[in-house]
Amino acid sequence: MANFILVLGLLAGGVVSAPVAQAFEPPRELSRVSVDEVAQSFQELKRKSLVDCLSRWEKDNNKKGRKVVGRDTVFTNSEPTPSQPRTPVCRDALDLNEIVKTILDRKGKDSARLATMIRWFKEQALLDLGSNVDSEGFFKANSNYKLLYFGAVEAAQDRKAEENFREPGHLTYAFLRSIWSKVRESTTLDRGFFNPVQLDPAVLESDELFGQLRKAFELEKVGFVTAGLKAIDDFWQAHEGPEGDPAFAPLAQALKGQGILKRFYFNGGEEHPFPWSRNVLVVIDEHHQAWGFYMGYSE
Fold first, then answer.
1. Can you say how many angstroms the Cα of residue 262 is from the centroid of all Cα atoms in its chain?
2. Strands 190-198 and 28-29
3. pLDDT tens figures, 89-121
4. How far apart are CA 16 and CA 1, in angstroms?
5. What is the pTM of this model?
6. Which CATH number fits domain 165-298: 1.10.8, 1.10.287, 3.30.230, 3.40.1460?
7. Kind and range of the H or E run holding 33
8. What is the Cα–Cα distance from 42 to 36, expressed in whole angstroms?
């Protein structure tokens, strides 16, 4: 609500009221990361993939134990066979083929030792992402960067969010993510978790609150439906949402606890020109952190 200060004066013996808008701190993302953290995340994710895929390739090509990555090393998304059940799975074949070729081209090399290539992964990520920095020195997650790094960005952000998250009551970040991952586990619907943002405590009882939540979680296209404990149940039963999945029960119970101050359910969708739907549950906890869950359909 607009705040008022009373200006006392002698204008006709009266009191003059002047409306003054209160300035609130904008939401602060608790998952912001540096380019170096993203590059480190990329190196860690691709290291295991490269070790497994190279082991598979060497075994298939009678070059076991070489631990050399070269231009002749072509990975495929292969699975263990009945005759070789313990052979490592190669899951990141396309990404590895791309990054290895890019690095060898840049280095002017035909091959490299496994350990060297892993070290070069981070170096290449820093080169590719180095210009994606905002005015505060953080990685610009909403910028245009290679899809190759998407998983690394998400992993780095999740790690940072968990580090910065202040537990409301006994709710841990790991618990929230783990239980949510089991809700409609086999669905093809879009679903995700909104990493926490820190709100200005003063904004909680103002008419600026929804504006901040919409901006923080990109909720411009969905409408407010319900608040309070009902918001949790409405979200739980939502069509193209959890749809009553019992796996949501531990979360529903936890989100009704005293550590949560506010709960809001949003919903939206369209049929034309491109069908989509979105169910969103946003909560604000006792530490004035806002975070939430979403599920829906898109083409």
1. 22
2. antiparallel
3. 888 999 999 999 999 999 999 999 999 999 999
4. 19
5. 0.86
6. 3.40.1460
7. none
8. 10
